[in-house]
Design goal:
Structural class: alpha/beta
CATH class of the largest domain: Alpha Beta
CATH architecture of the largest domain: 3-Layer(aba) Sandwich
Number of strands: 25
CATH superfamily of the largest domain: P-loop containing nucleotide triphosphate hydrolases
Shape: globular
Distance between the termini: 48 Å
């Protein structure tokens, strides 16, 4: 694949890096404007991308990044403006035309068919066939070649629905690179990847740059921007704030450009006053073997973090407590009373709320209005229903009050959630925890794919919950979140809790050392309760 692209670009010597500042423009956007009902998503935005350049789009959720990349990918038409790609002005661009032109997007929300295999997803809509007969052997060989070329540990015949999210991310990237690519769009590509997989992706990006591929890279992780970016364009409220050199700009400057205000501290100081144990799990094991003999507790008034590599079982832990994973052994106790058969409806009634990591697949009904998405977990309560009829006026009043409390924007409760930014979608999901009496909150990757400004609001929400006497379980692949927000930390490895850390024991070195070594480390770490 790499050799083919290099050969087709004969004016680039093989293996010679294309210098972005000296290379010609690949994409030139002038005055791009896009309106949706009630909102101007993009307001006369200029943007350019050179061959062999990684140009980062940076901004808060709702700033217009996704709208801009969707216009480039042909998903949306621009209402105004000019698009010049590869030296030609184009109009009425469709996703199919964009793909034929060499534009390949990898969006944050996956577009995979879960019941199909990896190779079937790679060739979906571009199958190799003659006279109505699929050339399956040819497609399988090419799929394996692409996966091997990218260095992805994926089986071409694996069903996508059974893959971990990180593997699905790899499938999306492989799908985008199956054809000859001139422009690659990567939207939060590392959100589900481990550190090792992320470095592999960065190596791939470096190689594509040498081959002259232009890359639009959307990320909220400033460390990544410094690692792969050449230039950064900052958007705010649909307007272009400026374009800067990625290597020269300071982190605080980027954040201030993005938010339009100073961010003094990212992580709040949380006053921890642990009370009685609200959640206790004893020797939990799941039927699929992803959890093995796991025990933990969460007290009122504290945030307990769970850290570990992707696939270590930390997400399954929250799902098992909420009744979404079948248990083969163990017991769950809520406020001292055992739960015989945990299931979501039972746990909600017991005051436990779970927020899944994949808000699109499991958390939200995107085509439905904000009102319905917020109230859905409380429709069994008398203040929302009466004689099996929904009390619409009461529902609207309750939801409006919660929307204002969480500052969901725009505050239009009948607006479909599909039209909201990632950060506001996350807030909609969090709003469910305020519709009923909830004292125990299970957060699984609560800030994945949202910007710094939205993250600070989520952290503040957790602070208020903990200081108000709630029990918070925080599961995150963002180690700084776990280190800075947690009062105690459980570290997981291969489905087991290997160590519990508290106070001064919670350090980056201590946690990272346990990601790979389940035997623990010296320095005062306590063995896990299940050990």
């Amino acid at each position: 694949m790499a050799e083919t692209r290099s050969a087709e670009r004969a004016h680039d010597a093989p293996g010679t890096a294309v210098v972005p500042g000296a290379s010609p423009l690949l994409l030139d956007l002038k005055g791009i404007t896009k309106r949706f009902p009630g909102v101007v998503a993009l307001d006369s935005v200029d943007f350019e991308l050179r061959r062999g350049e990684v140009h980062v789009l940076f901004g808060e959720n709702g700033a217009g990044k996704s709208t801009l990349t969707n216009i480039v990918a042909g998903t949306y038409p621009a209402d105004q403006g000019r698009i010049i790609f590869d030296g030609r002005q184009i109009s009425h661009l469709t996703p199919h035309q964009a793909r034929l032109a060499g534009i390949s997007p990898v969006f944050q929300e996956f577009s995979l068919a879960p019941d199909l295999t990896v190779e079937e997803n790679l060739f979906l809509g571009r199958e190799h066939a003659a006279w109505g007969v699929l050339h399956k052997r040819e497609m399988r060989a090419k799929a394996r070649a692409v996966l091997g070329d990218l260095g992805f540990d994926l089986r071409a015949n694996a069903r996508v629905g059974g893959l971990m999210r990180a593997q699905q991310q790899m499938t999306e990237i492989a799908k985008a690179l199956l054809q000859d690519v001139k422009l690659l769009i990567l939207d939060e590509p590392t959100a589900s990847l481990t550190e090792h997989e992320t470095e592999r992706l960065f190596a791939l990006i470096d190689r594509l740059k040498r081959e002259g591929v232009g890359i639009i890279y959307v990320s909220h992780r400033i460390g990544e921007i410094k690692r792969v970016g050449d230039r950064v364009t900052v958007l705010r409220d649909g307007k272009k704030i400026g374009t800067v050199d990625a290597a020269a700009i300071e982190e605080i400057q980027l954040v201030e450009m993005m938010t339009g205000r100073k961010i003094d501290v990212l992580f709040p100081t949380i006053d921890c006053k642990p009370g009685p144990v609200l959640i206790e799990a004893s020797h939990l094991s799941t039927a699929d073997g992803r959890l093995v003999d796991v025990s933990f507790t969460v007290r009122a008034g504290e945030i307990v973090g769970v850290a570990g590599l992707v696939g270590c079982g930390k997400s399954e832990l929250a799902r098992a407590v909420f009744g979404l994973e079948k248990l083969s052994a163990g017991e769950i106790t809520i406020e001292g009373a055992p739960v015989r058969r945990p299931k979501p409806s039972t746990m909600l009634k017991r005051g436990v709320c779970y927020f899944p990591s994949d808000r699109v697949a499991e958390g939200l009904a995107l085509p439905r209005p904000l009102r319905e998405n917020v109230s859905v977990a409380a429709l069994d309560l008398p203040n929302f229903t009466r004689l099996r009829f929904i009390r619409r006026a009461r529902e609207r009043a309750e939801v409006k009050a919660i929307v204002e409390t969480l500052r969901i924007r725009p505050p239009q409760i009948e607006r479909p959630v599909d039209f909201l930014s990632g950060g506001n979608r996350q807030k909609v999901m969090l709003a469910r925890g305020l519709t009923r009496e909830i004292r125990m909150f299970l957060f699984d990757e609560p800030t994945v794919g949202i910007d710094v400004g939205a993250k600070t609001e989520v952290y503040q929400f957790m602070k208020e919950l903990a200081e108000g006497g709630s029990a918070v379980l925080l599961i995150s692949s963002e180690l700084p979140e776990v280190l800075n927000l947690s009062h105690r930390v459980y570290v997981m490895h291969r489905g087991r809790v290997v160590t519990e850390l508290s106070g001064a024991e919670i350090t980056e070195q201590a946690v990272l050392s346990l990601f790979f070594d389940k035997k623990g480390f010296g320095g005062g770490a306590k063995p896990a309760a299940s050990a």
